[in-house]
C-alpha cells in the first residue's frame, strides 16, 4: 500500500480503534490511555500515515502553527528567540511560521495581519509604540508580545533591561571609569529603561552619563557612530552599547581609526550573541536570555491556546558576562 493512499480508516483498522479515536488523537483534542496511544503511534509509524493539514484545519479550525514576527533575522538575538520558541513548539506538535519585518514600522501591520490569517496565534516583537498596537487585540488570535506593556491587555515577556544596564555601569565604575557613555537606539521601546538603569547607577557614584544614538540596532550603525564619539574633544573612557551588534561595529571602526581596545576605551554590549566571544578583544556583555525568552513566549502561547493564559509581564533576569573588552583603569 502506497503512503499516499493511507487513510485514517487504515490507521483505525491497524490499531483496532474507531476512526473518531484516530481523529481525536491526531488533532490533539483528546488524550487516551497509554496502551491505546502506543497502538496509535505504532500504526501511524508502520503505515507511514501523514495527516492532511488542510483537512485538519477544516475539522478543528486549527493549523497547529504559531506565527513569530521578528525585527531582523540577521540579528542573532532574534534568531535565538526563534530557536527557543521552536524547541517548545516541537515538543507540543506545533510548527512555527515567522516573518521578518526588517525594522520597518510601515510594513509591520500589513505583514502581521497577513500572518494572523494563517496561524493559531502570534508571538510578536514590534517597534510600534504601545498606543499603536491595540489593533492586534482585534485579530481574534492570541498574541504574546515581547517587552513590557503598560496599558494593553496582552501577555508579554522580556528581560530586565534596566538591571542589565545598571550591572554594566556598576562594572565599569568598579573598574575605575569616570567618563561613561551610552550608545543607544532611540527607536527601541527598551532603550529608555536601559538609559535609566545606567544613569541611576552612575548617579549613586556622582558620575554623569553621556548619551549617544545609533541610527539602527546594527553593526553598520555602530561603525558609523564611532568617529563622532572617539574624535570628540571629551571622548568617553567606557561605552555601554544598546546591543552587541552596535558594540562590535563600534569596536571595528575604533580599531581602524588607530585606537587600542580596551586601553583607549572599554566597550560593552547586550544580548551575548554567540560570536561576541570570538572577536578581539572578546566582548563584555549581558546575556539577555534570548533563547529562554523564546521558550517562555511559546509556553505563554500554549497557555493562551488552552484558555489558561493570564495577561501580564513575565521578566527574565540578565546575567553579566565579563570578557576582555573592558579594562581596569589605574
Describe it.
The chain is elongated and about 80 Å long. The chain has helices spanning 8-15, 19-27, 34-47, 53-60, 76-91, 105-116, 161-174, 191-204, 219-230, 244-256, 290-305, and strands at residues 65-70, 95-100, 121-124, 143-146, 155-159, 180-184, 209-213, 238-241, 266-268, 285-287, 312-316, 319-321. With 330 residues, the chain is of the alpha/beta class. The chain has a six-stranded parallel β-sheet, with helices on both faces. A four-stranded parallel β-sheet has the order 7-6-8-9, with helices on both faces. Strands 10-12 form a two-stranded antiparallel sheet. Helix 1 (8-15) crosses helix 2 (19-27), helix 1 (8-15) crosses helix 3 (34-47) and helix 7 packs parallel to helix 8 (191-204). Helix content is 41%, strand content 16%.
Question: What would a concise description of this structure say?
Answer:
With 330 residues, this protein is α/β, with parallel strands linked by helices. It has 11 helices and 12 strands.
Strand-pairing-aware structural class: alpha/beta
The biggest beta sheet reads:
6 strands, parallel
Uncertain parts: none
- The global form is elongated
Give helix and strand order, one letter per element, not per position. Answer: HHHHEHEHEEEHEHEHEHEEHEE
Distance between the termini: 79 Å
Amino acid at each position: 500500500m502506497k503512503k499516499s493512499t493511507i487513510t485514517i480508516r487504515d490507521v483505525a483498522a491497524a490499531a483496532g480503534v474507531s476512526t473518531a479515536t484516530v481523529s481525536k488523537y491526531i488533532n490533539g483534542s483528546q488524550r487516551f490511555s497509554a496502551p491505546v496511544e502506543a497502538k496509535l503511534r505504532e500504526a501511524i509509524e508502520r503505515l507511514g500515515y501523514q495527516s492532511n493539514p488542510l483537512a485538519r484545519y477544516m475539522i478543528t479550525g486549527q493549523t497547529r502553527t504559531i506565527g513569530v514576527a521578528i525585527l531582523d533575522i540577521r540579528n542573532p538575538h532574534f534568531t535565538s528567540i526563534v530557536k527557543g520558541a521552536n524547541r517548545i513548539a516541537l515538543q507540543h506538535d506545533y510548527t512555527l511560521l515567522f516573518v521578518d519585518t526588517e525594522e520597518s514600522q510601515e510594513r509591520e501591520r500589513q505583514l502581521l495581519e497577513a500572518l494572523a490569517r494563517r496561524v493559531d496565534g502570534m508571538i510578536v516583537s514590534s517597534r510600534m509604540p504601545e498606543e499603536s498596537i491595540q489593533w492586534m487585540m482585534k485579530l481574534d488570535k492570541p498574541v504574546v508580545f515581547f517587552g513590557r506593556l503598560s496599558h494593553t491587555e496582552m501577555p508579554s515577556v522580556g528581560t530586565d533591561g534596566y538591571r542589565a544596564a545598571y550591572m554594566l555601569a556598576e562594572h565599569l565604575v568598579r573598574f575605575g571609569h569616570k567618563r561613561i557613555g551610552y550608545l543607544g537606539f532611540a527607536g527601541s521601546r527598551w532603550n529608555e529603561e536601559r538609559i535609566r538603569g545606567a544613569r541611576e547607577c552612575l548617579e549613586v557614584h556622582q558620575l554623569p552619563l553621556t548619551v549617544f544614538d545609533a541610527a539602527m540596532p546594527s553593526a553598520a550603525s555602530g561603525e558609523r557612530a564611532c568617529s563622532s564619539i572617539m574624535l570628540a574633544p571629551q571622548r568617553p573612557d567606557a561605552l555601554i552599547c544598546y546591543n552587541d551588534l552596535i558594540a562590535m561595529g563600534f569596536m571595528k571602526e575604533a580599531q581602524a581609526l588607530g585606537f587600542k581596545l580596551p586601553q583607549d576605551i572599554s566597550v560593552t554590549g547586550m544580548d551575548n550573541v554567540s560570536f561576541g566571544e570570538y572577536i578581539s578583544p572578546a566582548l563584555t556583555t549581558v546575556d539577555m536570555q534570548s533563547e529562554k525568552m523564546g521558550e517562555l513566549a511559546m509556553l505563554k502561547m500554549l497557555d493562551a491556546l488552552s484558555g489558561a493564559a493570564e495577561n501580564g509581564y513575565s521578566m527574565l533576569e540578565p546575567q553579566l558576562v565579563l570578557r576582555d573588552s573592558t579594562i581596569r583603569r589605574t
